[in-house]
Amino acid sequence: MAKIISDFIEYPDKIVYSNIKNKSDNRRFLLTSTNNEIEGFRIKDNPKIVERDLNRLKNSLFLKSRLFDESTFKVYLYQLKHNLIEKLFNGNPIHLDEFFTLDLFLAAVNNKNWKGRNKKIEKISNLVSDFYKSVGEVNFLEDTMNRQYLLTENHILRMDYLKSFMEQSKNYGLISNKDNPKEAFQFEEIDKLKNFGEKFTLGCDLLDVFKGHYRFMISLSNLFNIRESSSKFYNINLDKVDIAYLLSLFFSYGPNTFVKVPEKQLHTHFIKNYGDEYKNYKVFINKVCKEDSKFPIFIYDNRFYYISKHNLLLFVLWGIYSTSQNKFVQDARMEASRIFEEIIMNEFRDGFETPFEPSFKLSDNSYDYDVIAFSKKHKILFLIEAKYKDFPPSAMSGANLINHILEGDKGLIKESQKHELRKKYFVDNLDKFSKRANCDLSEYKIKMLIVMKYTPLIERCDDVEIFSFDKFRKYIGNFC
């Protein structure tokens, strides 16, 4: 069995939690994924309670909504969501509680009709604000189902490794009310892929535009799949024709970003571009704005459709990303990884030499080396494997954490073992590497590192050290 060093787990099956109810309690609470007790206390994790509370919240949202004029209420909520998406598109962080509260409201009232009288925007705004806390409480209960948190009679425990998941969310501009907005978008310059910078305009190269929005697509994947309940809001199953029609609507309204459209106009536009069967149009409309408990792409108030171009673009990008892992997504991911390797190499400044290009291979059949750097002064040589990857949403769970991140063909244990083989190949062919480096490397101490975007689950596997990018920069700074 591999020798693992970690602050977050005790390998092979225990996860570390801390008491957030009593911060003076410095104990490390250990839990296996299949255990229902911790420190002798039974864990409260009844999924029926979460489902019950979520349904109660939806019903309460709708009942209080009925006090207001239907059109005013729906359009105001949709406009708030439009503004929030605009912030994200413009590179500003958004608060998750605000995002999910609006979506829960819109999903609750979307396919319902009522006759309220109150049209005061201030009152609607106060109602939405009042529900932020309630939505946060239900989300917290769902997080206990995923064992990110644990509830017992005496404790509220939080998974210590949750901090790394939060690092990932913040990188994509998704923050909590307690986060510092300045900490968002850590890897923005890599993820933007500036060589794919074309914007959405009529006649543009859509492939380059989609590549340029690669970062936003990953952000949507994190956002839409952060919880099981919220993921159901966005499970609209758009096909290629749906995506094409949404994109055609996006280009139809020129510079206007929020438009009011009569139903006849929307119907005419549809049959002009995609056929003349009303049934097809009706199926499309039901899918994008009239499905129960789904987030509407359009809003309908029985007279007009209200269309946010930001929301159209959001779902075009989400539809493309989720319908298939297109080649351009893979290309964009590879390009981001290449930039990450170059940034790591550039951290080796004074006193270091980096004569090998990123992803260097001695021959077609040899191992690849993302970064090789050495210091003549310190007689040390680094073999670095750069891992520019995110956690899959399914890993953000106490039940899946170890299995999804450490184990399997792409887990950190296998990656570390492969890195050990890279070192062996390097040592076995030291004369060839020395010749390519124009330096005798035989007396250099070899250190193996894996550098990741965020705080890694483990800091060492056998002889391979595993760093976050921030820790790596500080570590290398001590040599430069």
Structural account:
The protein has 480 residues and is α+β, with helices and mostly antiparallel strands. It has 18 helices and 21 strands. It has a domain at 327-477: Trna Endonuclease, Chain: A, domain 1 (3-Layer(aba) Sandwich). 47% of the residues lie in helices and 16% in strands. The strands form 6 sheets. It has a 7-stranded mixed beta sheet. Strands 2, 3, 4, 8 and 9 form a 5-stranded antiparallel beta sheet that branches. The protein has a 3-stranded antiparallel beta sheet with strand order 11-13-12. Strand 15 and strand 16 (368-369) form a beta hairpin. It is globular and about 80 Å long.
Strands ordered across the widest β-sheet: 1-20-21-19-18-17-14
CA radius of gyration: 26 Å
Number of helices: 18
| Proportion of residues in β-strands | 15-25%
By CATH, the architecture of one domain is named: 3-Layer(aba) Sandwich
Unreliable spans? 193-198
CATH top level assignment of one domain? Alpha Beta
Q: Care to count the β-strands? A: 21
How far apart are the first and last residues' alpha carbons, in Å?
Answer: 36 Å
Helical content band? 40-55%
Mean pLDDT: 87
General form? globular
